[in-house]
Amino acid sequence: MHPSPATDLKTFLPTKDAELFKRFYTDLGFHDQLEQRADCRASDRRVPVPAGNFMMSLAVEEADAWWEHIQRQEFAKKYPGIMCKPPAMQPWGIRVLYLSDPTGVLWDITDMRKS
């Protein structure tokens, strides 16, 4: 039994460049979430774990719509060196769009469409 129901879950992503972090996530569409956090900045409290070992998963209704947004925003051009792969069906039956942020955090943006 859980002590009480969870009401929120926040993730603090690693970054060394707060301004680059804000630009990337604003371009991705998380502007409102960044603005709600007055302390959204590179943190001196971070644990020294490589960001490349950090992974996020975001389930969406249409990964293709996210891919179109990423293409319109020219993520690959604006943020050289990031991973930016269109949605594709994976052997385990989920369509996944892969995107890494400039620090190396990998995002799996998934939908459950079967085609």
Structural class: alpha+beta
Please name the CATH architecture. Roll
Rounded mean pLDDT is 81
Overall geometric form: globular
Which strand order do you get reading across the main beta sheet?
1-4-3-2
Report the CATH C-level class.
Answer: Alpha Beta
Q: Could you tell me the radius of gyration in angstroms?
A: 15 Å
Total number of strands: 4
Low-confidence stretches: none
* CATH-defined superfamily: 2,3-Dihydroxybiphenyl 1,2-Dioxygenase, domain 1
CATH topology descriptor: 2,3-Dihydroxybiphenyl 1,2-Dioxygenase, domain 1
β-strand percent reads 15-25%
Question: What distinguishing features does this structure have?
Answer:
115 residues, alpha+beta, 2,3-Dihydroxybiphenyl 1,2-Dioxygenase, domain 1, 4-stranded mixed beta sheet, 4 helices, 20% strand
Give a concise summary.
By secondary structure, this protein is α+β, with helices and mostly antiparallel strands. The protein has a single domain (18-42, 52-111), classed as Roll (2,3-Dihydroxybiphenyl 1,2-Dioxygenase, domain 1), CATH 3.10.180.10.
Question: Describe it for me?
Answer:
The protein has 115 residues and is α+β, with helices and mostly antiparallel strands. The chain has a single domain (18-42, 52-111), classed as 2,3-Dihydroxybiphenyl 1,2-Dioxygenase, domain 1 (Roll). Helices cover 27% and strands 20% of the residues. A 4-stranded mixed β-sheet has the order 1-4-3-2, covered by helices on one side. A hairpin with a 5-residue loop joins strand 3 and strand 4.
